[in-house]
Amino acid sequence: MASGAAFSPGETAEAVTPPSLTAVANADAAHAAGRHTEAAEAYQALAQASPRNAYFWFRLGSCRLQLRQHAQAITALEQAVALDPHEGRFAYNLAMAHSAVARDAFAQARAQLPPGSPWRSAAQQHRLLLDSVLGPPPEAGQP
Questions:
Q1: Contacts by 38-41 with C-beta closer than 8 Å and gap 24+?
Q2: Is the pLDDT assigned to residue 84 strictly greater than 70?
Q3: Nearest alpha-carbon partner for 19 in 43, 42, 44, 49
Q4: pTM of the model
Q5: Which of 10, 61, 65, 141 reaches 20 to 30 Å from 90, CA-CA?
Q6: Going by C-beta distance under 8 Å and a sequence separation of 6 or more, which residues neighbour residue 27?
Q7: Longest dimension (CA), the chain
Q8: How far apart, in whole angstroms, are the C-alpha atoms of residue 49 and residue 35?
Q9: How confident is the model at residue 10 (pLDDT cuts 50, 70, 90)?
Q10: What is the phi/psi pair of residue 122, to 5°?
Q11: Which pLDDT score is estimated for 6?
Q12: Average pLDDT along the chain
């Protein structure tokens, strides 16, 4: 996080480093406490203030993934990967977001296919496979 700038007497990193270290600490604390909506809002502001900071995009995407906001998660995580393509955690979470979208698409396909259709059976098998990777989807209305 250090910018390499020298501080004047009496200045702190928080006073001269946008965004503030306090804002980052507050976002990290909300994320760690599972307050994903609050954390997402904080990381969104941080990412907008520092758009070349891959960590902020990663955390924003991770929060959006927890909130089942898959399209927004993918957008943020793609930005993180673009900024730091060698960070495996970023690519992993991006893959998880794409997997969650696929799981939802297979569930929707199954619901729209007629009973007895081999495509319906295949959609169910794929959804269950993704459930085994991602865990079962939360109940309706819960993030």
A1: 39/63, 40/64, 40/67, 40/69
A2: yes
A3: 49
A4: 0.78
A5: 141
A6: 39, 42, 43, 46, 59
A7: 76
A8: 21
A9: very low
A10: -65, -40
A11: 37
A12: 86
